[in-house]
Design goal:
Elements (H helix, E strand, L loop, with lengths): L22 H23 L3 H33 L2 E4 L2 E4 L29 H12 L15 H4 L12 H9 L11 H6 L9
Antiparallel strand pairs: 1-2
């Protein structure tokens, strides 16, 4: 909660930013430090101009906070409208009700062409897929192993990458293999003479 919503956030005795704080807590900590150090300096030097400087800094922090909230909302709305998600700090296509296993579709947006699908081995993605597939099914008392028919009907296609990956295709088609002069390493090692008599 930012200090404009609750003024008592400025009176907490935390003046050092820590790694586990979110953006609001970090801004509150910076504002507390500015406020306490500014009041202390104003009392020591008996100067009222410092109080005006403190107020200007607090107003700037409010502007920074509003900018952060606006960008955060824009980012979340973009991810939600395009069925995207951030998993392991990587942007990927999330499972949806119409496409629970995130297979490529002819009707996909152009923005999804460069983005890969989320890995099914991730626990968060797997739980989301299970929730979507189990939504419309009633539980069977004889189903003791937790298997249902939709897992057998729906499947994830083997190649779920961008089908029009032109650059990768061009590199495969036209690029010469690495030579010893260019890269060295394995190409140079393959050029070394091996005496066949040593293998006997």
């Amino acid at each position: 909660m930012y200090w404009t919503s609750n003024i008592y956030e400025l009176f907490k005795p935390i003046l050092i930013i820590q790694n586990n704080m979110n953006m609001e807590e970090k801004l509150n900590t910076i504002n507390r430090f500015i406020l306490f150090s500014g009041i202390l300096i104003a009392l020591l030097f008996n100067n009222t101009k410092i109080v005006a400087f403190i107020i200007i800094l607090l107003l700037l922090s409010i502007i920074v906070y509003n900018y952060y909230i606006k960008n955060k909302d824009n980012k979340e709305s973009f991810l939600n409208t395009n069925n995207l998600d951030i998993i392991n700090n990587k942007l990927c296509i999330a499972p949806t009700k119409n496409n629970p296993l995130m297979n490529r579709n002819v009707l996909d947006n152009n923005c999804k062409n460069d983005i890969e699908t989320c890995t099914i081995s991730n626990k968060k993605v797997k739980n989301k897929i299970d929730k979507i597939l189990n939504h419309s099914l009633s539980n069977d008392t004889y189903n003791i192993y937790g298997k249902n028919n939709l897992f057998h009907i729906l499947y994830n296609v083997p190649n779920n990458n961008n089908p029009n990956n032109r650059d990768l295709f061009m590199k495969w088609l036209y690029r010469d293999p690495e030579s010893c002069k260019e890269e060295g390493g394995i190409a140079c090692y393959n050029n070394l003479h091996n005496d066949l008599r040593d293998n006997l």
